[in-house]
Amino acid sequence: MEIDSVLADALPATIALHAPNLKENLTVINADAMKIDSLPHNPTHLVANLPYNVSVPVVLHFLETFPSIREILVMVQSEVADRMAAVPGSKIYGIPSVKLTWYGEVDKAGLVGRNVFWPAPNVDSGLVRLVRKDRNLDPELRETLFSVVDAAFGQRRKTLRTALGSALGSPQEVEVLLRSAGIDPGLRGEQLSLADFVAIALQAKKVT
């Protein structure tokens, strides 16, 4: 899949030249990855070199759109890779970390130095692997969960009692909901695991 028409047109010839035995296995789709909602076959793997500004949205879009995808391996800017695979409690843990973990197990699979590219970019790259977990992913729960995550990290320095107001109501209502979910309202989003966010989302669904 390639959005650039020039590159998309060049790919078949490039494969025919350098890997002629594989050319029959190649199908090039000249399109914006964010607008793809169907493919000729159900994909099981996603392997991509993604630009910084769309890396996480593209991965999330494909995970949501194609449940058949079992494993993902993407190359992104090194700092983005760190955020995608970050764990609770770290300064770089945030929206990408939680949302990707909702779909599966995420880890950094390697580093790619800038010197392997021509022309050399100004940043290093990292490989991120996601292996999808086999569990029933309720679309409504996911929508609520992602709204809670967006709110929690939208005001990162504020406690959950205040930060979740945009998604769950007044500070007083939020505090009651959080305590019912077993979560301390004085915590910040970066201190919560995926399980904590799921507990909040489940409680939110009960009261709405």
UniProtKB/TrEMBL annotation:
Instruction: List the Gene Ontology MF annotations in alphabetical order.
Output: RNA binding; rRNA (adenine-N6,N6-)-dimethyltransferase activity
InterPro entries attached to this UniProt entry: KsgA/Erm, rRNA_Ade_diMease-like_C, rRNA_Ade_methylase_Trfase_N, SAM-dependent_MTases_sf
User: Would you tell me the protein name for this molecule?
Assistant: Unannotated protein
Q: Which residues form the Ribosomal RNA adenine methylase transferase N-terminal domain?
A: 2-134
Keywords, alphabetical: Methyltransferase, RNA-binding, S-adenosyl-L-methionine, Transferase
Q: Which GO terms describe its cellular component?
A: cytosol
Quote the Gene3D superfamilies the UniProt record gives. Ribosomal RNA adenine dimethylase-like, domain 2, Vaccinia Virus protein VP39
Organism, by scientific name, is: freshwater metagenome
Q: Which PROSITE patterns match?
A: SAM_RNA_A_N6_MT (PS51689)
- Which SUPFAM superfamilies does this UniProt record tie to the protein? S-adenosyl-L-methionine-dependent methyltransferases (SSF53335)
